[in-house]
Design a protein that fits this description.
The chain has helices spanning about 1-5, 20-30, 50-60, 80-95, 105-110, 115-120, 135-145, 155-165, and strands spanning about 10-15, 40-45, 70, 100-105, 150-155, 185-190. It is an alpha/beta fold. The chain has one domain: Vaccinia Virus protein VP39 (Rossmann fold), CATH 3.40.50.150. The strands form two sheets. Strands 3-4-6-5 form a four-stranded mixed β-sheet. Strand 3, helix 4 and strand 4 (about 100-105) form a beta-alpha-beta unit.
Length: about 190
């Protein structure tokens, strides 16, 4: 992924709701971080059928070219129907060989009273989840993807943390990485 981001011939698009985009751009400006023009910020609502694909196309993204979509930190705030519809939009509009990767929370995590209270207080309640541990999630991911998407990789949050999370001096991991099976990451390729 780093090689994609650092490659000047690769177009980068960041999609979120208009309110979130405004906050992000304001935070970048406040921090004195200049935009270099490499990233195009696109406002769209994943809860509205097709809107995100149309918004990306209008911003210059071509669904007719192989595309890598990293859908990070979004699914848990959408309904299952919205997640399914977004994946359906992806299957309908992007060319074979395109990939979409997304993270999700485990059902057990979303059902925790603390998680529900925290998300409700933030104004963005948690909704979508998949069962964990990973073995139970595999079938749920395949069912969610349906025909036309192949599960390229599916790993638990614990496995992600083992691979990539920074460690404290005592060897333990930071943050949620300490909670076993609280979610995962699924990568699908359009067939």
């Amino acid at each position: 992924m780093d090689s994609l981001v650092s490659n000047p011939s690769v177009s980068l698009f960041e999609v979120d709701t208009s309110a979130s985009q405004e906050k992000k751009l304001a935070a970048l400006a406040e921090a004195g971080l200049a935009q270099d023009g490499r990233v195009t910020y696109v406002a769209a609502d994943f809860a509205k059928a097709g809107e995100w694909v149309d918004a990306l196309a209008n911003a210059g993204c071509s669904p007719d070219l192989p595309t890598c979509l990293l859908w990070e930190g979004v699914t848990m705030y959408l309904s299952r129907e919205d997640v399914s519809r977004t994946l359906s939009d992806f299957k309908k509009r992007f060319v074979p060989g395109s990939v979409i990767g997304f993270d999700y929370f485990a059902t057990e995590h979303v059902n925790l009273a603390f998680a529900k209270r925290t998300s409700r207080n933030s104004g963005e309640p948690l909704d979508f989840s998949l069962p964990c541990p990973l073995g139970a999630g595999d079938n749920a991911v395949r069912e969610l993807f349906g025909d036309g998407l192949r599960v390229a990789e599916h790993i638990s949050l614990e496995e992600l943390a083992e691979r990539y999370a920074p460690r404290k001096p005592d060897g333990s991991m930071f943050g949620y990485a300490n909670e076993k099976y609280s979610g995962g990451f699924a990568l699908a390729e359009k067939e």
